[in-house]
Predict the 3D structure of the following.
Amino acid sequence: MILALKKDVVAGGLYMAIGAGFASMSLEQPIGETTRMGPGFFPLCVGLILGVIGAWVFLTAFRTGGAGGTVEIRARPAAVILVALVAFALLLPRLGLVLTSILVFVLSAAAAPQRSVLQVGLVAVVLAAVVGLVFVAGLRLPIPALPPFLFS
Amino acid sequence: MDLFDNLLIGAQTAISVRGMFYALIGVVLGTAIGVLPGLGPVAAIAMLLPLTYGLQPELALIMLAGIFYGSQYGGSTTSILVNIPGESSSVVTCLDGHQMARQGRAGTALATAAIGSFFAGTVSTVLIAGFAPVLATIAFRFGPAEYFSLMILGLVGAVALAHGSMVKALGMILIGLLLGLVGTDVTSGGQRFTFSLPDLFDGIDFVAISMGLFGIAEVIASAGRAGNRDILTRRITGLLPSRSDLRRMAPAVLRGTAVGSFLGLLPGGGATLSSFTSYALEKKLSRTPGAFGRGAIEGVAGPESANNAASQTSFIPMLTLGIPSNAVMALMIGAMMMHNITPGPQVAVTNPALFWGLIVSMWFGNLILLVLNLPMIGLWVKVLGVPYRLLFPAIVVLSCIGAYSVNGNGFGILLLAGFGLAGHLFAALECEPAPLLLGFVLGPSMEEYFRRAMLIGDGDIAIFATRPLSAVLLGTAALVLLLFALPAIGRKRAEAFVEGEE
């Protein structure tokens, strides 16, 4: 997906937005005085400076007639990976590490063209087994390896 | 003799059975990941961080350091054999290393890289042991104003020496600083920027932010992209360099070590800058500059020594001042904080086993690299053959486990996803993520020093200019900014990076 926007225009806009966001949230905090600063003081300053830098980047991009080319976002892989990550967070407590790893591996593999589904599945199973052994059996991370409902 | 006693303390930690075991594991795993194209030290350390949660702090750091130089060496192997740099510091190794490989001298190129790295590693370990305590003594005299100014200088230097737009990098630092402030304010105990989410009260999880920006973002950018690979499948023979090879590489190794040791100390310096600089230097000094790019052994020996020396000396400002000079050191600070150790001059005093153990383990780790990697080269070639389409789903799964296990809930993974997307956006906008990570790590302490300095200075910002040392540091920072903003030097800076990328 190619957006008809110049990189530096978007970057400058993004900096300004983040700077303004943090600055305005800082204003909800006690600002304090220079000798006894409240929690809002430092982030307010940083946010404002960020805003100025953003404006600088933004305006320079316009003046030079759009430096840096247009923005190219890889929407499909980004969406697939996002789904895979959220799936991991949701599935892990319910299915345990081994099954979750297999599913998330297969899901995220869909972000790129694959040659054979069988191959992906096979690698997923091997990785899940290794991961289960290393992290749960070996390092004893407090994560269930197998679906907890099997043992309840 | 102090130094000797100290090294002895270190040796007791590092050369113990467990110390050696974790250094070995770290180096082997690091190399295995570093060999994979597109995965460098930052991704390797972030991905393997969960492995060290349960260890004692000194063993955890020894293992992480092993992962670091292992992955760096692995990156060189990939550059030589496949012509795809595993990470940015081995970009220049591709130029001559891969040409050597195509001429059937892959073994010699690999051995040159290993020998150069080992020599540089040994020299820089001695440098660290000698200089770090001296720097720590100076750092003990720093007040909050000096620390604040030092951090400004560190961040400015990091921007000036890294590549890409300086103004945009400054912006990324500020974003990092702000993100670092999310969570409970230490002074007032109030919540800042947490949107009342209890999961954010302890701040944004460090593993999620680094894995997202460096791991997931890279996966999104590379998944499904056809890479043109040129793997050398021939059996690799003739590992030992000949007498004439040795004669040609020796001066390059010495110069590379010197360049790297120095540049590693600078903020923003480190492995990438020093390997580029060393390559440029070797080419300039060579009597046959035309041979560069066609398999000149100096073009491998110099940069490889330089990047290893720099990766090690960059530990000096990190260990003694708590100031990260690059993304890898930011990660090491994060890892130390997870083990409740705040990097700074006090570490060598309160935690001598950790401090000296880490230093001695660096030398030992380099020895493992040399002894182990050359015989294991056949295995690394096999690892190299793993196609990216099967590799990236594994990266996703490992990142998830890392982000989940920090706090044991799914919130870390949502953060990971958020920062992965943000990282992809940043890459699309050509905003470098490394300065953000530096700012993130320094954010809380910068605010703290700023507050304290202003309190001492009675609310007058002039305190930063009236304290002499602080003034010098700030003046240097201003000078660096000005110098690099000048068009002439800006062009030179751009050229220095283009040199290797052509």
